[in-house]
Each structure stands twice: as structure tokens, then as C-alpha cells.
Amino acid sequence: MTVQAAEIPVLETKAVTKHFGALTAVNGVSLSVSHGIQSIIGPNGAGKTTFFNLLAGFLVPDKGSIFYRGKEITGLAPYEISQMGVGRSFQITSIFPNLSVFENIRVACQSRSKSRYNFFMSCEKLPGVQIAARKILSQMGLEDWADSPAKNLPYGLQRCLDIGISLATDPQILLLDEPTSGMSVEDSAVILKLIAEIAKLMPVVLIEHNIDMVLTISDRIAVLYQGLLLAEGTPAEIQGNQEVQKAYLGGY
Amino acid sequence: MPRSQLVMLASFFALALVFPLVAPYEALASEILIFALFAMSYDLVLGYGGMLSFGHAAFFGIGAYSTGIILIRVVPSVPVALLGAVCVSSLAAAFVGYASIRRHGIYFTMVTLAFAQMFYFIAFKWTSLTGGDDGLQGVPRPNIGPTDIHPEINLYYFILALVIVSMFIIVRVVHSPLGTALQALRENRNRAMSVGYNVDRFRLVAFVISGCFAGLAGGLYALLLNMVPLGSLHWTTSGEVVVMNIIGGMATLFGPVIGAVSIILLRDIISNYTDAWSLFMGLIFMMAVFGFRDGIVGFFRNKIIPRANKILGQAFPRKH
Ligand SMILES: Nc1ncnc2c1ncn2[C@@H]1O[C@H](COP(=O)(O)OP(=O)(O)OP(=O)(O)O)[C@@H](O)[C@H]1O
Ligand SMILES: [Mg+2]
User: Fold this and answer.
1) Cβ atoms < 10 Å from Cβ of B158
2) A139 and A155: one domain?
3) Among B169, B180, B194, which would you mutate to test the A interface (most chain A Cβ atoms within 10 Å of its Cβ)?
4) How many CB pairs under 8 A join A and B?
5) Least packed by Cβ within 10 Å: which of A5, A177, B178, B316?
6) Are residues A164 and A236 in the same domain?
7) Is residue A27 part of a domain?
8) Are residues A203 and A184 in the same domain?
9) Which of A82, A99, A118 sits opposite B176 (nearest CB)?
10) Is residue A240, in this structure, part of any structural domain at all?
11) What distances in angstroms separate CA A221 from CA A14, A53, A121, A232, B311, one per listed residue?
12) A237 and A182 share a domain?
């Protein structure tokens, strides 16, 4: 895909930096995402998750700024950024363990309703929410589990539910933090297919460790190394990059 | 509303109708109802909101004092007094909630306790308004329209009517968008934030709703006793409502009601023999925490009912 110069990116960072004490976890990273799958790779502790936490408002950058469709969102609360249209999943599975699988998704859909503060009507009467939730449930292949508590799901399906919860908020861009981590090869393939489907509808920022997978699925790849953006480009450019080879890929 | 909850509510109301006939004395039946409402209102905060407030006596006590003061000094009208009590205690809950809701865990608990102690101290010192240590004496029971609520049995049914309406509203709250969001953020705060919930705002609204019904319970308590004891604001009252929730079963709505019935009955029985109620209270609390963490309702739901089903299933196997 070619990026037009005049287009406003969906999500853009300008030189964001985050320190944890003496450690600089993210160091002046500028990145913009417009469409397709933008992967972020890098060794353990490179600052990938921290970067996501900055994008989603869970952390506030010490320096630099973040823009959503050209609007500055630096310092906004996570719920505000989510309401604007940024969806995220978590590296460590993050679901509502004691709620039913259906309720996990339904409550996420409900967050888009104007009546979410209503405390007298039945939540089942919210227009559209039940239907939207069922749709996501079947898209994620979780119908058979609808009424079980989410904590009873097998691990792989919990990862699916995590993504489903993010999708249920009808996002404009999706941040996925190692969605296939800890999954079997077969399950990973299912998830990847799903991600490719999602990426046709909205840009996806993907943190992923499996290099083979990243090289095939991504439209663009950013390489983080000790908090620095080492390189950014198409999979072919990244593969051909000497520095990346030295620091990270090691022979790929 | 799930059918099982409807059945439970219906049987509760059926029992409540005949309760004063079997209770040791009518005022005790009324007291049980009042604490059932107080405990159920607290379930919104602890069970559904996951907030361990240790200052809920404040809203109960403020409701009681407001009712008493309005009846004595402003206008001898029960509806006006109770409405006033509900407004004042909701305001107090909004104030305490606003100051405490941003804290979490033990810090939240300590801030709520600190505010409750402050209200206790004010009531203790402001003798001209509250009667101080002696409590607020001489709260009248003016007729409600044509109805004389001096007979204990009449007051009981008046209280029952209000408690039924309140419980109906609380059940609605739990199944509302706000109530379901509240449970989601109790389950996983970060996840709730990341799907777009303003966590603190939901917690605050739930806290205020809870304070509102705690205040109503307090107002009814003032009517029942014809006075307001200073102890209604004491931290032990906060502790009791916590215990009622834990031994009854949190986040079940029905559990706290069972907890309230058990605790008040037990206190009444034990107080015939000894003054060491707090000792028993402590023992009950430890039993609840170590023995059956899901409370009486959870104990039946998780242990007894499955086991009974299994035994029944073996005794009367289903035909295929
Ligand atoms: N809240 C925090 N407080 C202090 N240090 C932190 C915090 N979060 C992350 N770090 C540190 O910042 C660095 C970057 O962490 P981060 O989780 O962003 O790495 P990552 O690229 O996601 O690694 P992984 O591939 O293991 O998930 C690490 O050294 C980590 O220990
Ligand atoms: Mg990470």
C-alpha cells in the first residue's frame, strides 16, 4: 500500500519518551499508523508494551506528544482514548473472569451506549447491544461458551475473548499486544487469520515475537531496541536492514 | 431479572408479611427489616462495586439524625422527614464518595472510616442539635395521612412497604447498565477502563445510590426507636453491616438480607444472657472469613444444592 503524504494518520506519536527511574523504557519514538498491519518487534524489555500503554493512556509520556486523527490525546485518560476509538488487548490476558463470556463482550459493547450510566432500566433493553454482542461472540467462535464464566475458558479462547472485548467497543484502530503468546501453532494460525480480517476494516498495531509470522502478515514493521526506534519500514526493508540484523534478527 | 431471583424475592415477601406474628416481638421484626435494607444497600458498594467502605454507618446515622431533627424541629411529617433524610444522606455520600473514590484498597477503606469518625464526632459534640452522648431523644411518630403508626404492627407494615420498594429498585440497579458496568470494573479495573468506562464515575454513582438507601434505613430506625442513638454513627455499626454482607454472601443481594436477619436475631438472643455481644460478633466474623467465604447463600448455592442435586439424581435417575 502507498501512503499519501497529505493523509492524516489514525494514530501518531511525536518523539515520545517514558522513563522509569533511571531506565528509559521508550526513547523519543515517532511513529505513525494509517492503515493495514503495523507490527512492532523487539527483544524482551525493548519497550513495546510501554509504548502501547502510552498510546492507550495507561501511562503519560514524560516528553513528546500523541495524536489521534490529528487531535492531541497526550495525557487523556484511558477511557477517553477508548471512547475516541482506540481499542487495545493486553499481553497478559485481561478479561472479566467471573462474568459470563457473553457478559464480557456485552459489557464492552455497552460502553458505547449513551445510556451506560442509566441505573434503572434493564441492561438487556439497550438498543443494539445484545445483537452487537452476539455478532462478536460468533465472530470469535465463542458461542458455545456464551454462558460459562470467562475464567473457565481454555487459555487459547481466553486470548480470543480478550480480542473480542476490544472489538466489541467498535474501535477505529486496534492495538494487540502479543495476541498469540502462549498459544499452540494451530491456535495462532486462527488468530492470525482473524487479525488479517480485522485489518481490512481498521488499522491494527501488532506486537509479536514470532518473526516469520510478522514478516508475512505485516504491511509495515517498526523495530524497538532499548526504547529506541531502530528502524521502520516494509518487511523487505526491515529484513535488509543491517542494524536490525545485528541487533535483533540475527540471521533471518 | 432471572427467575431464581424473582422466586427468592417473592418468598422473602411472603415470609415478611407473616414475620411479625412469629418474631419474638414486633419491634424486632421491624429492626430486622431495617438492617436488611441497610445491608442490601451496602452490597451495592462491597459486593457489586468491590469497595470495602468502612464508613457506611455515616449514611445510616445521618439518615436517622436528619429524620429525627426534621420531625422534631421542622415539620411533623414522616414523608417529608424520610425524603429529607434520603437527600441529606445522599449528599453526604456524594461528598464522602468524591473524596474517597479515587483511592483504592485499604486507602479507600481508611478514608471512608475517617469521614465516618468525623460525623460521629460532630454528632457527639453538637449537643444542642443532636443530644450528644444521650442520642436524639423524643422523635415523634406522627400519623401518615389517616394511618396511625404508633402501634408497632402498623409501623412494621409501613417499613415493609418502603423496604420492598427499595429492594425492588436495588435489584433493578444491579441489572441496569450502570450495575453491570460496576461488576465489570470490580472484576478488572484496567479492562473496564480500556473499554471506555470512566471507572471513578461509576463507583461514585453506586456509592451515592447506596448511601441514599442506607439513609432511608437510618430514617426508619429513628422512627422505630423514637430516638436516635449516637451508636448509629459508631464504627461498630459500619462493621456490623460489613459482617452481615460477608456472612450472608456478597454480591447476591439476598445474602446480605440473610446476614442481617441472622445477626439481629442472634444479637437479640445472646443479649438475654450476656453483654459480650462484640465477642460473639468477632467470632461470627472469623467463622465467616475462614469457614465459608461465599457466605450462607454461597454455601447453599455451591455446596448444598449441587450435592442435593447429585443425591436426588442418584435416587431418582432421569429416564431417557
Ligand atoms: N511500570 C513499570 N515500572 C518500572 N519499570 C517498568 C515498568 N513497566 C515496564 N518497565 C521496564 O521497562 C522496560 C520495557 O518494558 P516493556 O514491558 O515495555 O517491554 P516489552 O518490549 O513489552 O517486553 P516483552 O517482550 O517482554 O513484553 C523493561 O525493562 C521493564 O522492566
Ligand atoms: Mg510486552
Assistant:
1) 18
2) yes
3) B194
4) 108
5) A5
6) no
7) yes
8) yes
9) A118
10) yes
11) 17, 19, 47, 6, 60
12) yes
| CA A3 to centroid of ligand 2, rounded, Å | 28
Q: Which of A151, A170, A189 is the last residue of a domain?
A: A170
Q: Which residues pair with A204 in a beta bridge?
A: A37, A174
Whether A34 is in a domain gets the answer yes
A183 and A252 in a single domain? The answer is yes
Report yes or no on A225 lying in a domain: yes
Cα B140 from Cα B78, distance rounded (Å): 9
Residue B27's CB is within 10 A of a number of other CB atoms, namely: 16
> Which residues 198-237 in chain B show a CB within 8 A of chain A?
198-199, 201-202, 205, 209
- DSSP string across B149-201: --SHHHHHHHHHHHHHHHHHHHHHHHTSHHHHHHHHHHH-HHHHHHTT--HHH
Burial class (CB in 10 A: 0-12, 13-18, 19+), B236: exposed
Task: Judge if A155 and A200 occupy the same domain.
Answer: no
pTM of the shown model: 0.91
Q: Which residues lie closer than 8 Å to B243 by C-beta, 6 or more apart?
A: B259, B263, B281, B284, B285, B288
Ligand 1 shell residues, CB under 6 Å: A 20, 23, 25, 42, 44-50, 91
Q: CB count, 10 Å around CB of A123? A: 23
Chain A residues with beta carbon closer than 8 angstroms to that of B187: 96-99
How far does the CA of residue B268 sit from the closest CA of chain A (Å)? Answer: 36
pLDDT digits 0-9 by tens, A118-171: 898 888 888 899 999 999 999 999 999 999 999 999 998 999 999 999 999 999
**Domain count for chain A:** 2
Architecture of domain B3-277: Orthogonal Bundle (1.10)
pLDDT in tens, B136-155: 999 999 999 888 999 999 99
Domain boundary among A152, A170, A188: A170
* Residues of chain A found within 8 Å of residue B172, distances taken between Cβ atoms: 119-122
Q: Quick one: pLDDT at residue B318?
A: 53
**Residue A138 domain boundaries:** 94-170
DSSP state of A125: G
Give yes or no for residue A1 having a pLDDT over 60: no
Residues of A within 8 A of B183 (CB-CB) are: 96, 99, 107
Mean pLDDT, rounded, of chain B: 90
Find the farthest-apart pair of alpha carbons in chain B and give their distance in angstroms, rounded: 76
